[in-house]
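Allow me, if you will, to draw on your knowledge of protein folds for a short while. A protein sequence and the structure tokens that stand for its backbone fold form the material at issue. I would ask you to consider whether the tokens describe a fold that such a sequence might reasonably adopt. Thank you for your consideration; the sequence and its tokens are set out here:
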Amino acid sequence: MTYEANGKQYGLTAAGGHGSFLTKLGDSVIAYPLPDKH
């Protein structure tokens, strides 16, 4: 998923672990800036 704020585009990732991999379950959403278009 992406969104735009103040003219800047951001990507979103839902990160939460997985029971089959024995990783901790969570409810995080991580946003990161995407490179500017040239």
